[in-house]
Amino acid sequence: MSSTTSTSDLAPLRPSRALRIGLWTAQTMIFLLFGFAGLTKLFTPIKELAQMMPWTGEYSVAFVRTIGLIDLAGGLGILLPSLTRIMPRLTVLAALGCVTLQVFAIMFHVSRGEAVVTPLNLVLLALSLFVLWGRNTKAPILPRS
């Protein structure tokens, strides 16, 4: 018995519209949340920041500002490479970085007895995992030709 395979059988499946919309929505949400958090940690005076996030008053200014830069880089990295299609593979790496950051943030807050503040970290973790999975396997963005 001979089987024939047409070229259309070998073409990759196009991701569904819902998946593509979901990924762009998740990327935009991560961009906004990480961007806001990063800018807040970078530019808010530590005394004011410590009223919103008590841990920031207990660590060095350099540490807090570095976390702000990491947040901002994650937010920019999750969206801009895909949006511009310039090195879009960086979106996958940014998503991996955001996943790692959220895992450490959850452990940090739980170790300090601040589990009550982790729901946002869990949401960001889930969104980052979704983008990591989606942009890596199901709906990668192709670079500009």
UniProtKB/TrEMBL annotation:
Superkingdom, taxonomy of origin: Bacteria
Short name of any one Pfam family annotated for the protein: DoxX_2
Protein location: Membrane
Transmembrane segment boundaries: 21-39, 59-80, 92-110, 116-134
Keyword NADP assigned: no
Membrane topology summary: Multi-pass membrane protein
GO cellular component terms attached to this protein's record: membrane
Keywords, sorted A to Z: Membrane, Transmembrane, Transmembrane helix
Name the UniProt record assigns to this protein: DoxX family protein
